[in-house]
Task: structure prediction
Amino acid sequence: LNRFETVTEAFEAMAGNSAGRVNQQRFEEFLAAESEAEGSGAGAKPALKDWVLGTTPEDRERVFASVNPNRSATIDLKDFLSLHLHTAVLAVRRLAHMQTWIFQEFGKTDAAFAQVFKTMNGGKATTKIEHQKFTAGMKALGYPGSDETLRSIFSLCDFNSDTKISSQEFQNLCHFNADKFLQSLRALKVYAEEKFGGLDKCYKKMLRAEKALKNCSFAPQTASFAAFENVFKDPAFREQVPNIDLRMIFTFLDEATGKHADGFIGIGEWLLLRGFDASALCGSPARLQKILEERHGSLAEAFHRMHANWLAGTLRRGLKQAAFEGLARSLCRDRGAAERGKSAQAGGGGDGHACALRPSSRAASFGELRPKFPAVGKPLGSPGGLGGKLTFGTNASSLGSSRAAGTSGGFQRASLSRVASLPAL
Result:
């Protein structure tokens, strides 16, 4: 876009006299020629040249594949326009980033989002906010996004395309889920292809719905949200994807080409769905594959190592949890037995042993069950200390005598011996 005003003009220059089709070889030749021409211009930033020099032929071949959803020998303009999907999906990720930032800074409730909107709007919760005020307000709150990022987020929040957002539109961000949204977008594409026989035929039905809504004699060239919603009102589709947000999908497609939403989608914006697959939306899958293969030899070996690391971490967490649960049970049981023994000795009479085993008349509180550790700064043998030399691995007889004695030191030695006997992690 630094070299050409639009992606369409870039493709026309690339295609030249080849009847609107471009193969991999022509794609590579065009990039090489344009990067050289860009580098020779005075004062121009050689963005394309830097990118070409920083990639390999294999990287550029995978880029070509990412805009070739039909996996044919050549691509046409509609295929090449799927480059806009990268921009559109980046906008979704930006929206998710702002959501996460607000969660961390202010909270995860509708009330928190309402308060953020009110703060941006100068204490007003009922009036709508324009783009300039939204940008200034988010920056004042400390959001680390550029003007371009905030402009993109604003457009996706503006559901009715009136160049303003309300408090309710902003609060919708609280419930946004980027992954589920992309899955629903994929489901919509599959439904359109299966139900209408292709994306082109589906868009023609949208235009017919738009004509009927406007009750006009001419054929509309763009479709409004009302026509878009009319095409996808099939109950079977809604049952298949019950939580799909058609308004959000429409706004996403309207924003996709980077011209910012205007309330209508054209054929170019709609056909961006042709490039909607894993290779087009995963950021840099070619680079990830290359790194994994270089470091681990193959994707299978990389997955094996990832699984082994995950399994080891899961095992460690499980062992720690089991150890702490065992420790908690031991401390509570020992403390309860010691207290019951003291009560039996203080009461006198009857079978002391039986009294010690009798359940307490009330449940001990957490504070009562907590072991009493020695005072800080006191030696082991002093009053209030542990009462003697610590020995681990206490046998059953010594443990029983410690309990019978009812002393704090005996109880602590018994408890610590249990801690020492736990299996090593």
About this structure: The beta strands are 22-23, 74-75, 129-130, 164-165, 223-224, 264-265.
